[in-house]
Amino acid sequence: MSRMNGRQILVVGATSGIGLATARALASEGARVALSARRVEKLDAEVAALGAQHIAVPCDVRDAEACKRAVAQAVDGLGGLTDFVYTAGSATLSNVADATPEQWHQAFEINVVGPSLLTSAALPHLAKSRGRALYVSTVASEDRPPRRGLALYSATKAALNRLIESWQEEERAVGFTRVTIGDTHATEMAKDWDPAATGEIVREWVAKGFLYGRTMAPEDVALHLVDLLALRETVPFSSLIPRYPEP
Ligand SMILES: NC(=O)c1ccc[n+]([C@@H]2O[C@H](COP(=O)([O-])OP(=O)(O)OC[C@H]3O[C@@H](n4cnc5c(N)ncnc54)[C@H](OP(=O)(O)O)[C@@H]3O)[C@@H](O)[C@H]2O)c1
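A: This is the predicted complex of the input protein with NAP.
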């Protein structure tokens, strides 16, 4: 398929998991992709595999100047920008009572402030092309009661949800979409979590019915994101949460 022919897309969070799968899926459907994240060697290796029409754009989204530079590099390297996809995320496993100031700052910087600064920089280019901005959020921002252990994550993703709505209220030349995703395997999201604490908390989430006994593959989430970008209409909100049938 070549549904993304002519599209010039910045994907932030493109070195692993959902972002990497999305960059690959967009490229396979004809888009030119600027892959962005912190790990330069991974970005370079992926661009080498995907082809020279794609570019690597190193960026730590906690650095405001780096965000501006990343958008400028993407626009220069791709010859414009039609779409922006934000998949970077930070998920700390911690009770609220134990959360450190550093953990709070990191959660807000990566899940809220970074995507907004990148959006600000990308906006004139997206508006020119009547483009789209997609942000990956999480079912954990809506779970009732909140999942124990994910307070920083769910609070900052809930802030992201409202931020996206505010962007759309202010800007009508760009279509903004929040994509709420259920649990997804084969990503690096939990790579820094303590294994024993993770085992215990996941058993609790399963017992409370949060995981529905299912997780998704990043490639399936990526397909959904590409489908959303291929639609002529912007949907403000989309949800992809695994359910039935049992495999
Ligand atoms: N996995 C799940 O179960 C799940 C469920 C619901 C929602 N989500 C959401 O889906 C999105 C993707 O998650 P994932 O599971 O695919 O996680 P992942 O494999 O850990 O990918 C996260 C990506 O974000 C990048 N990143 C992290 N910190 C960054 C920073 N400071 N600056 C720039 N890039 C940064 C990472 O690259 P570098 O380390 O190279 O910078 C990586 O490419 C996240 O927003 C997450 O909240 C995930």
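The pocket of NAP is lined by residues 13-19, 37-39, 59-62, 87-91, 110, 136, 138, 181, 183-184, 187-189, 218 (CB under 6 Å). DSSP finds seven helices and seven strands in the chain.
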